[in-house]
Design brief:
The protein is an alpha/beta fold. The chain is built from six helices and eleven strands.
């Protein structure tokens, strides 16, 4: 997957593999070890072709909210994968300091964006990626910080859980990136890889601090503020 990166200037506890981490809201200081990755390339087909990145939430484009969540969770480096109407997103959203990754194959589905995002992190020095979806504004910094705290080393694999059910955000140690990219097709993202490696995943319960709804349809727009 080809991509272009633009450096834009201007504006808790962890458990072992297969265990559920206990709720805590301690967030470590910002670091480049765990990079934030926002998947924001979708065209909003079920929303009449309105890209989700540009939906308004709290007065600003939704993509800004996702970036702010990752930064507040302690990710000093944030990459944002863009696709549909990427020019409009670059113009309207304040994404200063982010690495903007162009995914020309965004219509292929989330898998292509995940591949582009992980590829953009190669050589960055990041040892893990904390991945958020742009259309989940009910997931904030407290949940993202808990999942980030599950990072131990390059082999880490963790995900938020809601009443024990795996959800987002997810954390992929760098040792997993090649395998995830190889299996990420269509809109499945990393689902197949995570299923295959289920025993290695640290589940971090976040149901007490976040709501994992998606903004997929016109009816879901009522969840935006």
């Amino acid at each position: 997957m080809t991509h272009t990166d633009d450096e834009v200037s201007g504006p808790d506890g962890a458990a072992g593999p297969g265990e559920v981490a206990g709720p805590t809201d301690e967030v470590a200081g910002p670091t480049d070890e765990v990079a934030g990755l926002v998947l924001a390339a979708g065209g909003g087909r079920r929303l009449g072709g309105r890209p989700k990145a540009l939906l308004t939430h709290r007065g600003r484009p939704l993509v800004e909210h996702a970036v702010a969540v990752l930064r507040a969770a302690g990710c000093a480096r944030v990459h944002v994968v863009l696709g549909a109407r990427s020019g409009d997103v670059r113009e309207r959203a304040r994404l200063a300091g982010c690495v903007l990754v162009n995914n020309p194959g965004w219509e292929e589905g989330m898998g292509s964006s995940l591949r582009a995002g992980l590829d953009s992190l190669a050589g960055s020095g990041a040892r893990a990626a904390l991945v958020c979806l742009v259309d989940q504004p009910g997931i904030g910094a407290r949940a993202a910080g808990r999942v980030r705290a599950a990072f131990k080393d390059d082999t880490s694999l963790a995900a938020a859980a809601y009443d024990g059910v795996r959800g987002h955000p997810v954390l992929f140690g760098a040792a997993h990136w090649a395998g995830i990219a190889a299996s990420a097709t269509g809109d499945r993202g990393a689902r197949a890889y995570l299923k295959e490696h289920a025993a290695e995943i640290t589940l971090v319960e976040c149901g007490d601090v976040a709501q994992p709804y998606d903004i997929d349809t016109e009816a879901d727009l009522a969840c935006l503020e």
